[in-house]
Specification:
Elements (H helix, E strand, L loop, with lengths): L12 H10 L6 H13 L21 E5 L4 H6 L10 H7 L20 E5 L18 H11 L3 E5 L1 H8 L7 E7 L2 E6 L13 H13 L1
Parallel strand pairs: 1-2, 1-3, 3-5
Antiparallel strand pairs: 4-5
Length: about 210
């Protein structure tokens, strides 16, 4: 659609400039649509944004963290948890799961610390409000957990857990359900948009469990 400068109620500049000559409200609708289509074809949004991130998986990891889907910035940069205000990398360091605060571009280093990453939605990117959760594949993810047998599988936020369990009544902390021998855990979302529900205590509990199991 239009550039950011012309979003909302604003109009492309050629319509504004033509209004005194043609009378915007008196213009033929077909002509206006034709002009808009031509203008938009020369003002696209650039290359298509990748819609998902690669799984960061290995056999027998200590922990795999599962989000809902890649955010727009993460998809664009092809880096996990790259959105401004996301607390993921900071909390991993603060609870002792990494020796320093990693940058999103360093996400592959997590494997050296026994940690993997994935999302429950692949093929889409954006906020939870923009994601079509009917495309969630909990059965596929369930099989991957059985195959790779991490000690703990943690959902980053309740939404990812709700889609996996296919129910709404999900609590934070360790779950009674397991996948094989893998313990399932739900921690508050590290997304900046979920700050009002933020509680680092559950991430500390997760870290204590992971470190005790090593």
């Amino acid at each position: 659609m239009w550039d950011n400068a012309y979003r909302g109620n604003a109009r492309p500049p050629f319509l504004i400039n033509m209004r005194p000559l043609l009378g915007y409200h008196d213009c033929d609708r077909g002509s206006v649509r034709e002009l808009l289509g031509d203008w938009q074809s020369h003002h696209d949004d650039g290359p298509e944004v990748p819609q998902m991130l690669e799984d960061l998986f290995a056999k027998n990891l200590d922990l795999v963290v599962c989000g809902t889907a890649a955010g727009r910035r993460s998809a664009m940069l092809q880096q996990y948890y790259a959105g401004q205000g996301n607390k993921f990398w900071r909390i991993l360091f603060q609870v002792g799961l990494t020796p320093r605060e990693l940058k999103p571009s360093e996400y592959r280093l997590l494997l050296s610390f026994g940690i993997g990453l994935t999302d429950i939605i692949k093929g889409q990117s954006g906020s939870d409000a923009e994601i079509g959760f009917r495309a969630a594949g909990p059965d596929v993810l369930h099989e991957r957990i059985l195959e790779l047998t991490p000690r703990c599988f943690c959902f980053n936020g309740k939404k990812a857990a709700q889609e996996f369990f296919r129910r709404q009544d999900v609590s934070y902390g360790a779950q009674s359900d397991k996948v094989g021998d893998t313990v399932l855990f739900v921690a508050p979302s590290t997304s900046g948009s979920g700050s009002r529900w933020w509680n680092p205590d559950y991430w500390r509990e997760l870290a204590d469990f992971v470190k005790a199991a090593v």
